[in-house]
Specification:
- Helix 6 (220-229) crosses helix 8 (255-276) and helix 10 (319-334) packs parallel to helix 11 (368-377).
- The chain is 25% helix and 28% strand.
- The chain is of the alpha/beta class.
- The protein folds into 2 domains: 2-10 and 382-497, Immunoglobulin-like, CATH 2.60.40.1180; 17-377, Alpha-Beta Barrel (TIM Barrel), CATH 3.20.20.
Length: 499
Amino acid sequence: MQAKMTVNKAFTISTIDPRVYGTFLEHMGRAVYSGIYEPGHKTADAKGFRQDVKELVKELNTPLIRYPGGNFLSGYNWEDGIGKNRPKRLDLAWKTVETNEVGLHEFINWSKEVNAEVNMAINLGTRGIDAARNIVEYCNHPGGTYWSDLRRQNGAEAPFNIKTWCLGNEMDGPWQIGGKTAEEYGRLAAEAAKVMKWVDPTIELVVCGSSNDQMPTFASWEATVLEHTYEHVDYLSLHSYYGNHKNDLQNYLAMSVGMDRFIKSVTAICDYIKAKKRSNKTLNLSFDEWNIWYHSNEKDSENEPWQQAPPILEDIYNFEDALLFGCLLITLLKNSDRVKIACLAQLVNVIAPIMTEKNGAAWRQATFYPFMQAAHHGHGTVLRHNLDVPAYDCVDFNAVPFVESVAIHNEVKNEIIVFAVNRSANESTDFTAELQGFNPTSILEFTEISGHDVKQVNTKDTCPVVPKKADAASINGNQLTASLKPLSWNMIRVGVADK
């Protein structure tokens, strides 16, 4: 099989916002407790945070972490996580007990240690406008007021200067504490946004879109919410999870086509409201929950309620998951003109690239590696490309290209980065990329994840699903040539010289 990509230096999509490699940590399951935080663990620092996990998070290179939820958010009082006397609460979202040992200060300090900014979410389920303005004042105002001086009394003299804020979580969902109609949420979000920006005009706000594109109110929810909030917010959120429930590999690997349709549909709704309001403002997107989630569904139904940090949503990812994961990453990058923020849900233990054993090891799941490679090397300008490659039909999608790919020009490092997934289970692909307007000089790196049984997983004892050096690619004039093995994730870095 052959695949030919054509790019031209003059034709671009957008510069990548690094926040597209964001992640997410919610107070649920073992994400926080025995995930990032485990006093008594052999690697724990003086504050109780696992240093082995910190090193893996830094290796992943995520620049932004959404916190503290998620469904947990809609019943959370942020004041419970500051000061010395912290109450234990029932978390109705996940039917667990929240100890509040880790709160605002602890998480912000930890985030700094892993080189990430915080994407703070506020409770618009059981709380409202007053709590919204108070937390911004607590976090971002320098001092001389009740809430900012309380922050200083609690040990943080300098403001946290959190720039990105989410206005609630999945407020259209009947499962959500304090779920609302689009009218109810739109009005509340608009008023909360106003006072938050009055406290700190420099912040950016994300308003809730639909919980997924299968919600019965999808599209009408977005349109109604944006009627109220368009001029007050900066991003509209998207959430979507994927799974191979039918055990149909070719259909599963095509699900990134559905993600692309979702993004383009929501973009169209934003632009409709822009036109309707005759606005000069273009609203961008925050895909602030995306991942693969289905392996743990059956086990989670057996959990007893009101435990502290029970093992829930602990999907163990396999090779086929890593391939779809790579397709989803590529899709986000190809939509970088509108998707400026994305948060992989989640970061540790809960549907996560990093797993830990309580009192034991931490390790990298199969999905860790495509994310790590993209977060380290996927920076610069996405090039608009044409890809000539055979396609296939499957149960849910038609005309699915056998190769999913993207090309990025990193002008700072003088290189072009190609990420590509070969969806074919049987055929290698002779891949060529014509790099018009560039002067390619060398292959800097060519790695692949390939050759595994599709159900192969990584464990604490063995991690076979990792990138390995691929067979040599070559440069001939302005053309890149490489062979993409069947069912493979590939990263090719090409050095380019100025013309």
